[in-house]
Amino acid sequence: MLSTVALGLLALAASSEVTAAPSDAPVAKPQKITLQSRVTPKGHVTAVRAKAAQAIGVPLDDFFLGTDLQWFGNISVGTPPQTVSVVFDTGSQTLEFASTECTTCNQTNKFDGSKSSTYVRGNRITTLDFATGVGVDPVVNNDYVLTVRSGTDTVTVGGVAAKDISLFTIIKQTPKFNIDPFLGIQGMGSQAEGFFAALTRAGLPSLFSYFLTPHTVGNAELLIGGIDDTKFKGDLIYANQQGDGDWEVESSQISVNGKTTSVLKQSRSVIFDSGTSNILFDTQTTEAMYALISPNIKPFAAEPGAYGLPCSEIDGLPATIDITFTSQSGTPFNLTIPSSELNVGPFASDPSTCQTLINAFDGLELVGGSLLKHYYSVWDVGNQRMGFAPNGESLLSYPRGRG
Ligand SMILES: *[C@@H]1O[C@H](CO)[C@@H](O)[C@H](O)[C@H]1NC(C)=O
Ligand SMILES: *[C@@H]1O[C@H](CO)[C@@H](O)[C@H](O)[C@H]1NC(C)=O
Ligand SMILES: *[C@@H]1O[C@H](CO)[C@@H](O)[C@H](O)[C@H]1NC(C)=O
């Protein structure tokens, strides 16, 4: 949980640092994509809408530690291809993963550049410091530091290979990263970059879709270049995306258990981040939301930004969060986080206190896995919009009709 809460933030921080810092980073150049093979997973052939016949399905695993945390899957890097497991993170834009050069990374199956005939090792080393101040378990300044090296190689996703993709290999990481069951992060930001840009240049529709299910449901999937309408109910509702790199949608109101307040009625730009497990709002917004749930939810002193209450009091506490957005056709719609998401789990340093899902972080308003796992989501890069429809498992009412 702790690395999860922090990770989306890490990814956010990393994206700006990585893209800004390296001066001799490989320069993006027009790439010819090599279509080595095309894998169309069973079931999609007829299920996927006509244009998405070539869509690439990537199965995802759920990092589960008592609650759903993050979804990760495999890409391959190099020639011959080496499997690299990554979080497909809509909160960042670059690709970085641990290499054998990293002696402090305890993950297995690290990428070995010396075994790839197409790997070009860059010389630019960048140190990324992360001081998020939120999370479960100690998150103190400089706990999260990655040192990365620039490079390029062939990246293969779902059997489709794209050459000369800019990437970063992690050559040093602090111990907080060791809990992660994946090797790295694949940025899936709102501007096409990396292998995604290469795939769209090769003719794949410029969008991807997430089916981020709870652990108990399984079969989570990232579908690149398509929409699988067997995985959601009703029609997708689309809203304009306003982020420049991040995915952001304007929200007019937040309600908790059907009630709102003047603070919660303010409009705000909400970031959608598949690399973060929970939700983050300004302190004022966070406390206004908690006030509508229970007066016993208090800041957890050992973890700035985190809140909790005695675990004995948390189950059954109503905490339905409706975040209101406006569709492209001008109608309001809610994305709803059900009460079952309130309990993130016990704090490691105080197991009788359970962390609650909203973390206070001034200057950032962000939703992650606890919302995304209840909806099928379409991240439409080409049209700069996001689409949502309830997953099969969602029990909550949802307006119908096209957005
Ligand atoms: C990723 O690849 C590894 C090794 O081939 C495999 O064990 C694992 O199941 C794959 N993960 C997913 C989510 O497909
Ligand atoms: C790496 O370290 C973490 C934290 O100590 C541990 O949970 C994990 O199992 C270790 N992974 C491996 C592959 O040794
Ligand atoms: C959104 O949720 C609020 C609070 O529960 C409710 O009052 C409102 O009617 C909902 N809006 C829509 C369009 O469903």
Architecture overview:
The protein has two domains: 7-224, Cathepsin D, subunit A, domain 1, CATH 2.40.70.10; 237-390, Acid Proteases (Cathepsin D, subunit A, domain 1, Beta Barrel). The protein is built from six helices and 26 strands. It has helices at residues 2-20, 44-47, 194-201, 283-291, 311-314, 369-372; strands spanning 33-34, 56-59, 61-64, 68-77, 82-89, 95-98, 120-130, 144-157, 160-173, 184-187, 207-211, 221-224, 237-240, 248-256, 268-272, 279-281, 298-299, 307-310, 321-326, 332-337, 343-347, 350-356, 358-360, 366-367, 375-380, 385-390. One 2-acetamido-2-deoxy-beta-D-glucopyranose (NAG) is lined by residues 255, 258, 322, 324, 332-334, 399. GO terms for molecular function: aspartic-type endopeptidase activity. This is Acid protease. InterPro entries: Aspartic_peptidase_A1, Aspartic_peptidase_AS, Pepsin-like_dom, PEPTIDASE_A1, Peptidase_aspartic_dom_sf. Residues 1-20 form the signal peptide.
